[in-house]
């Protein structure tokens, strides 16, 4: 007497996927001499039951594994909000790398939703990346947060990732709802992780509960592997005792290029042209961007801190901060040229370089402009580089050091891309 067994094969989201995939599986079973006794549509749209003889079980599993799971490309559906300096570069990188990923990683990356502050555009089959700008600009759909989220829901695609490339608090406020729909979130926007500790923790908890991912490696050091490294240390039981870091690419660029006789405001504008500053450069110059970054690092270490717990001494005159737009801010910086010249002259007289340094030591985090002399490890830090030194129980005598470009569209987009691929490979 033959004993029959049931194998339940999970296939794609929709019935139209079933036809192709199941046909492929049945053909592969037949070619390998497996006699299919019966086929039944499962209780949900996502499974099909195939009944075979018991003696063919192991062979069938191998055949199914090879014919379907190994050859199947994992489709990742991206919803991108923010297509400026960083978001636009990310689209270019995806367009260039898409074919390589299909061939070598079996990952089919598709951008299925796009938005800036004015318009949004969707294509469930994947937006044609050769003309994404025209498609978005020509779209009839005005960007509206609720409508964007509703479209994601209606498309109901598996393996969806919401990528926030804005610096907007309104977009960051959407993450919790998105994560609850089992959609992962990837972002270089620091606002969520530097908001209240409760919100930061809730986002992490939601991601855990709903089995979505919340990844933000580019919040600190752009594409440099700072947060992943820190997470590796913590998860493996190490304890961070001290952090010393230069965490602003724009400020490092500015103070590397600002010398006596050079106008401070001109260098600040250059940092903007290079794509190093935030959309609002006051966030960089005030030290807030660095405060957010050191806050995120210590939170990742398990410290329940708020932004107000970070000590910070601003080097920017108060009235520069009270300006309403970038032009007015630049005009005020120009008015205070003598103040900036005095700062740099004082450092130059000591043979020192100015650096905005973030530290965490003895439970206290602080940010401030420091005169760094030649013997200090932070002295040789060129261009828009960042450096992070972690002193831990294991890296005790010599710190673990991460160094490299810490701002700029290409390296930031790369870091976002890497987070997306972490999700694709998970
Ligand atoms: N530049 C860098 O080196 C790094 C940047 N980051 C972070 O990356 C993010 C993006 O920076 P960057 O690309 O330089 O900024 P940009 O100003 O160049 O681009 C911002 C984009 O976001 C869009 N946007 C703004 N508000 C909204 C909104 N409410 N809804 C939809 N779209 C919106 C803008 O649209 P529109 O054009 O219509 O205004 C624009 O497309 C920031 O959070 C920044 O902190 C992180 C690490 C490094
Ligand atoms: N404006 C930031 C960009 C990266 O976070 C910086 O200057 O470092
Ligand atoms: Na990083």
TrEMBL record:
<dbReference type="InterPro" id="IPR054352">
    <property type="entry name" value="ACT_Aspartokinase"/>
</dbReference>
<keyword id="KW-0028">Amino-acid biosynthesis</keyword>
<keyword id="KW-0547">Nucleotide-binding</keyword>
<dbReference type="InterPro" id="IPR002912">
    <property type="entry name" value="ACT_dom"/>
</dbReference>
<comment type="pathway">
    <text>Amino-acid biosynthesis; L-methionine biosynthesis via de novo pathway; L-homoserine from L-aspartate: step 3/3.</text>
</comment>
<comment type="similarity">
    <text>Belongs to the homoserine dehydrogenase family.</text>
</comment>
<comment type="pathway">
    <text>Amino-acid biosynthesis; L-threonine biosynthesis; L-threonine from L-aspartate: step 3/5.</text>
</comment>
<dbReference type="InterPro" id="IPR045865">
    <property type="entry name" value="ACT-like_dom_sf"/>
</dbReference>
<dbReference type="Pfam" id="PF22468">
    <property type="entry name" value="ACT_9"/>
</dbReference>
<keyword id="KW-0560">Oxidoreductase</keyword>
<dbReference type="InterPro" id="IPR005106">
    <property type="entry name" value="Asp/hSer_DH_NAD-bd"/>
</dbReference>
<dbReference type="InterPro" id="IPR019811">
    <property type="entry name" value="HDH_CS"/>
</dbReference>
<keyword id="KW-0067">ATP-binding</keyword>
<keyword id="KW-0486">Methionine biosynthesis</keyword>
<protein>
    <recommendedName>
        <fullName>Homoserine dehydrogenase</fullName>
        <ecNumber>1.1.1.3</ecNumber>
    </recommendedName>
</protein>
<feature type="domain" description="ACT">
    <location>
        <begin position="10"/>
        <end position="85"/>
    </location>
</feature>
<dbReference type="InterPro" id="IPR036291">
    <property type="entry name" value="NAD(P)-bd_dom_sf"/>
</dbReference>
<keyword id="KW-0791">Threonine biosynthesis</keyword>
<dbReference type="InterPro" id="IPR001342">
    <property type="entry name" value="HDH_cat"/>
</dbReference>
<keyword id="KW-0521">NADP</keyword>
<keyword id="KW-0808">Transferase</keyword>
<keyword id="KW-0457">Lysine biosynthesis</keyword>
<dbReference type="Pfam" id="PF03447">
    <property type="entry name" value="NAD_binding_3"/>
</dbReference>
<dbReference type="InterPro" id="IPR011147">
    <property type="entry name" value="Bifunc_Aspkin/hSer_DH"/>
</dbReference>
<keyword id="KW-0418">Kinase</keyword>
<dbReference type="InterPro" id="IPR022697">
    <property type="entry name" value="HDH_short"/>
</dbReference>
<dbReference type="Pfam" id="PF00742">
    <property type="entry name" value="Homoserine_dh"/>
</dbReference>
């Amino acid at each position: 007497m033959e004993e029959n067994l049931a194998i339940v094969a999970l296939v794609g989201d929709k019935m139209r996927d079933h036809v192709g995939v199941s046909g492929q599986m049945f053909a592969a079973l037949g070619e390998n001499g497996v006699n299919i006794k019966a086929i039944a549509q499962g209780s949900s749209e996502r499974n099909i039951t195939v009944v075979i003889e018991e003696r063919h079980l192991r062979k069938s599993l191998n055949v199914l594994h090879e014919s379907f799971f190994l050859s199947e490309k994992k489709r990742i559906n991206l919803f991108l909000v923010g297509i400026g300096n960083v978001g636009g570069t990310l689209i270019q990188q995806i367009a260039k790398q898409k074919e390589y990923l299909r061939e070598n990683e079996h990952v089919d990356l598709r951008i299925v939703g796009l938005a800036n502050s004015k318009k949004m555009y969707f294509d469930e089959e994947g937006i044609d990346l050769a003309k994404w700008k025209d498609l978005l600009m020509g779209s009839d759909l005005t960007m509206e947060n609720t409508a964007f989220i509703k479209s994601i829901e209606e498309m109901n695609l598996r393996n969806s990732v919401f990528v926030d490339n804005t610096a907007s608090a309104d977009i960051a406020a959407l993450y919790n709802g998105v994560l609850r729909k089992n959609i992962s979130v990837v972002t270089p926007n620091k606002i969520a992780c530097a908001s209240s500790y409760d919100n930061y923790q809730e986002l992490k908890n939601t991601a855990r509960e709903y089995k979505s991912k919340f990844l933000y490696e580019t919040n600190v050091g752009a594409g440099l592997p700072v947060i992943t490294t820190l997470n590796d240390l913590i998860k493996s039981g190490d304890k961070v005792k001290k952090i010393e870091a230069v965490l602003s690419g724009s400020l490092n660029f500015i103070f590397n290029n600002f010398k006596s006789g050079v106008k401070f405001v001109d260098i600040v504008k250059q940092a903007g042209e290079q794509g190093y500053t935030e959309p609002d450069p006051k966030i960089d110059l005030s030290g807030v961007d660095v405060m957010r970054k050191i806050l995120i690092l210590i939170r990742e270490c398990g410290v329940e801190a708020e932004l107000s717990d970070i000590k910070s001494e601003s080097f920017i005159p108060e009235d520069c901060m009270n300006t309403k737009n970038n032009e007015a801010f630049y005009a005020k910086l120009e008015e205070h040229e003598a103040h900036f010249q005095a700062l740099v002259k004082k450092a130059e007289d000591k043979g020192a370089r100015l650096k905005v340094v973030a530290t965490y030591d003895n439970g206290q985090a602080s940010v401030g402009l420091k005169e760094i002399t030649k013997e200090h490890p932070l002295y040789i830090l060129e261009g828009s580089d960042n450096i992070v030194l972690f002193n831990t129980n294991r890296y005790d005598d010599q710190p673990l050091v991460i160094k490299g470009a810490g701002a700029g569209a290409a390296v930031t987009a790369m870091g976002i891309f890497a987070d997306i691929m972490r999700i694709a490979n998970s």
